[in-house]
C-alpha cells in the first residue's frame, strides 16, 4: 500500500501549476509588450 503511494508520488507532475505559470508569464509578456508599444507610439517612434 505504501509502496504504491510512493510510486504515484515519483510519477507526479504538477501540470496544473506548470500551466498556470506559463499562462502567467504569457500574460505578463503581453502586458509588457503592449506598454512598450504604447511608449514607442506616444514618442512618435
Describe this structure in words.
- It is a single chain.
- The chain is mainly α.
- The chain has a domain at 15-45.
- The protein contains 2 helices and no strands.
- It starts with a helix and ends with a helix.
Oligomer: single chain
Q: In angstroms, what is the radius of gyration?
A: 21 Å
Helix content: over 70%
> Quick one: overall form?
rod-shaped
Q: Structural class of the helix and strand makeup?
A: mainly alpha
Describe the protein's topology.
Blueprint: H1 2-10, H2 15-42
Q: Gist?
A:
The protein has 45 residues and is mainly α.
Annotation keywords:
45 residues, mainly alpha, 2 helices, rod-shaped
Amino acid at each position: 500500500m505504501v509502496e504504491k503511494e510512493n510510486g504515484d508520488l515519483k510519477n507526479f507532475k504538477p501540470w496544473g501549476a506548470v500551466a498556470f505559470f506559463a499562462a502567467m508569464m504569457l500574460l505578463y509578456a503581453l502586458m509588457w509588450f503592449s506598454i512598450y508599444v504604447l511608449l514607442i507610439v506616444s514618442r512618435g517612434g
